[in-house]
Amino acid sequence: MPQNSLLLFLWLSYFALHSALASLRLKSWVAGRWPQWMPAYRLGFNAIAILGLLPILYLLVSQPGRLVWAWSGAWAWLANGIALAAVLGFFHTLGDYDSHEFLGLRQWKNGTRTVADQERFHLSAVHRYVRHPWYFLSLLMIWTRDMSEAMLLSALVMTVYFVVGARLEEQKLIAYHGERYRRYMEKVAGLIPLPWKTLSKAQAAELVSGQE
After folding, report:
1. Number of domains the chain contains
2. What is the dihedral angle through the alpha carbons of 170, 171, 177, 181, rounded to the nearest 10 degrees?
3. Per-residue pLDDT tens over the stretch 20-59
4. How much is the pTM?
5. Is residue 119 a contact partner of residue 181, using CB atoms and an 8 Å limit?
6. Nearest to residue 203, comparing CAs of 187, 182, 186, 179?
7. 115-127 pLDDT, tens per residue?
8. CB 90 within 8 Å of CB 96
9. pLDDT at site 2
10. Beta strands in 94-173 (DSSP E)
11. Who's near 141: CB < 8 A, 6+ residues apart?
12. Which domain holds residue 175?
């Protein structure tokens, strides 16, 4: 359907722009040409990310297409319970991140012109079980929803992007933290927690301190 083609185009354009703006190559180029812009780079990045979602959300709501499947009965209770747990998990993990760094407020306040993120390498409790907890929680929230044609297309595209985006993000983290992050990748699952790939509290502390 035409609206689904437009939706796919918007998602692909959004993710292509998002990945380009997040890349070290583009950030380094901006820092070299216009270093005075760097303190506002993260703020601008987040603003573009939010504004870019608006036409996509409008299309999802205004032209959802036919219903592909809907949870019902006990399955609906289970799906909504998982989604609620994911939302609570998301808010619980907010304290594990430097919100000022994430939003770009710290860079703006301090006039930071460096390309690299300033947050030090650390492992929260949830990072001992999965390397990308927000991606994992987002997948839970996405796939527990009723699926219209537009929502199913969006869920598939977002899932693929989380897989690709996680790899791109980890290339930067390896550049920032080197072999220590490589060892972390070997020991902990990426997007879906796996019982045999976790770190104890002591193991995580050793990895962070570089003593492992």
Report:
1. 1
2. 50
3. 998 888 888 998 889 898 889 999 999 999 999 999 999 9
4. 0.86
5. no
6. 187
7. 766 567 788 889 9
8. no
9. 64
10. 147-148
11. 83, 86, 87
12. 2-209
